[in-house]
């Protein structure tokens, strides 16, 4: 990244047939929170193609280890020990270095540590549920955690979220900003979840399911799940419109 | 047969959910001791930051005119001279004392968001014309399936707003005021309406 010229081209248009639409009545909260008028299209200006950069100096030593980052000294969170790893890429397949990735999740019993959370499963005194990291020069990242549990939520009378980890990702431009969720290979709860089902395309859903990777599993310690995150691609420099005069 | 175009598809968005604070503003959600401070919290300016100090405040309203109490709002803006603090800013160097990015969760009781910042300078549009001063907003929350993008312009920039290449091409003029933050003294009020008669203009950027 250090020697690469800055990227100044606009991003590929977002495929809004691929993302969930705003209005998805099966997910009830979306009904009153979905804009009803057409979005106004805006080809990227400087305001959209630029974005903040976060340095490694913001990171603490255990920011990417949810097993210990909230635990009392010498103790650990309870649950199935896993490592989640992958790359942040753009739609061209180019790794995105220096990308801030934040993640949060419920504990092994499906309970979040949050003032407004009321599920009866107990809190784990050694589990906070948040972590973050910054991708390396190839876009790679990893973190250690425990596998979150599924949990019921107020939507239909018997709706459950599949086990999942939330991700918030920064690319190099503010227009790449993305929040999504990672699911786990083989979980039957994925396909009956009203939030998953907001995504119209089955292949788009499959793109959010992390694969169990026994090759990267650490023997006698933790299993590995691979989860690549794809952000919007940028137009190639040779197509750049240079009218701006820079 | 033709040569295949080998592009990946962007990861599909999923809602930030009701507990976005745990990941993005853990101290705010009551999880202390993991991060010293919440990223993007606090004032965006220090003593050396150039520019006119302003406070942006507002609410995000749903279709029943109820303020969202679980939204997370991020803003991104240029410095006082119109430069972004980003490697993709090639026109000049931005004020090193101004990142230009911040995030604020809506208050858990009232839903209000507040940003202590500076008024941005003007930034050129793609054809070189100057855009009016504006702040980019990104809104996520439970029930929002894909983050919403909008812009806040300033009510005290009537002339610049009239020339702005984005504002001036909006067909339904009656909707333009939804993008204008109302300035009174040092405070700029910008309410965001997800639905209804005054639905904010959101952009596909």
Plain-language structure description:
The complex is a heterodimer of chains A (246) and B (205). With 246 residues, chain A is mainly beta. Helices cover 4% and strands 24% of the residues of chain A. In chain A, the strands form 2 sheets. In chain A, strands 2, 3, 4, 5, 8, 9, 10, 11 and 12 form a 9-stranded mixed sheet that branches. A two-stranded antiparallel sheet of chain A has the order 6-7. Chain A is globular. Chain B is mostly beta strands and 205 residues long. Chain B contains 3 helices and 11 strands. Chain B has helices at 20-24, 26-29, 158-163; strands at 53-58, 60-61, 72-77, 101-105, 113-118, 134-140, 148-154, 180-184, 187-189, 192-193, 203-204. In chain B, the strands form 2 sheets. An 8-stranded mixed sheet of chain B has the order 4-3-6-7-8-9-1-5, with no helix packed on it. A two-stranded parallel ribbon of chain B has the order 2-10. Chain B is globular. Chain B starts with 19 loop residues before the first helix and ends with a strand. The model of chain B has no long low-confidence stretch (mean pLDDT 97). Strand 1 (40-41) of chain A pairs parallel with strand 11 (203-204) of chain B.
Structural class of chain A: mainly beta
Oligomer: heterodimer
User: Distance between termini of chain A?
Assistant: 21 Å
The number of distinct structural domains of chain A comes to 1
Q: Give the C-level CATH assignment of chain B.
A: Mainly Beta
- Helix amount of chain B: under 10%
Q: Count the beta strands of chain B.
A: 11
């Amino acid at each position: 990244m250090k020697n690469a010229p800055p990227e100044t081209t606009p991003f590929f248009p977002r495929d809004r047939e691929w993302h969930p639409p705003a209005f998805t009545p099966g997910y009830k909260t979306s009904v009153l929170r979905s804009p009803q008028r057409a979005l106004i299209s805006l080809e990227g200006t400087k305001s959209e193609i630029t974005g903040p950069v976060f340095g490694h100096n913001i990171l603490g030593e255990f920011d990417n280890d949810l097993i210990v980052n909230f635990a009392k000294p010498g103790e650990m969170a309870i649950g199935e020990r896993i490592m989640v790893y992958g790359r942040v890429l753009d739609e061209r397949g180019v790794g995105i270095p220096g990308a801030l990735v934040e993640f949060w999740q419920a504990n092994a019993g499906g309970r979040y540590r949050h003032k407004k959370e009321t599920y009866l499963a107990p809190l784990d005194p050694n589990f906070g549920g948040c972590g973050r990291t910054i991708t390396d020069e190839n876009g790679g990242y990893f973190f250690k955690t425990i596998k979150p549990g599924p949990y019921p939520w107020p939507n239909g009378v018997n709706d459950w979220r599949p086990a999942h980890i939330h991700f918030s990702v920064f690319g190099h431009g503010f227009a790449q900003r993305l929040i999504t969720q990672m699911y786990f290979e083989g979980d039957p709860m994925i396909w009956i979840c009203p939030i998953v089902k907001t995504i119209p395309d089955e292949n788009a859903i499959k793109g959010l399911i992390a694969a169990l990777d026994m090759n990267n599993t650490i023997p006698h310690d933790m299993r590995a799940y691979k989860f690549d995150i794809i952000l919007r691609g940028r137009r190639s420099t040779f197509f750049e419109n240079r009218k701006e005069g820079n | 047969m033709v040569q295949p175009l080998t592009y990946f598809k962007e990861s599909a968005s999923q809602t930030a959910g009701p507990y976005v604070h745990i990941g993005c503003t853990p101290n705010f959600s009551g999880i202390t001791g993991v991060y010293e401070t919440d990223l993007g919290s606090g004032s965006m300016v220090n003593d050396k930051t150039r520019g006119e100090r302003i406070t942006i405040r507002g609410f995000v309203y749903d279709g029943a005119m109820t303020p969202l109490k679980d939204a997370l709002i991020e803003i991104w803006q240029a410095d006082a001279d119109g430069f972004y603090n980003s490697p993709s800013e090639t026109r000049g160097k931005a004020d090193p004392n101004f990142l230009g990015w911040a995030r604020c969760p809506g208050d858990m009781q009232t839903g209000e968001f507040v940003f202590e910042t500076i008024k941005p300078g003007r930034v050129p549009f793609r054809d070189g014309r100057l855009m009016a001063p504006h702040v980019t907003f990104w809104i996520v929350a439970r029930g929002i399936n894909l983050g919403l993008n909008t812009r806040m312009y300033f009510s005290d920039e009537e002339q610049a707003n009239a020339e702005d290449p984005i504002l001036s091409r909006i067909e339904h003029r009656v909707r333009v005021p939804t993008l204008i933050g109302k300035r009174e003294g040092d405070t700029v009020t910008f309410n965001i309406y997800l639905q209804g008669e005054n639905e904010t203009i959101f952009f596909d950027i």
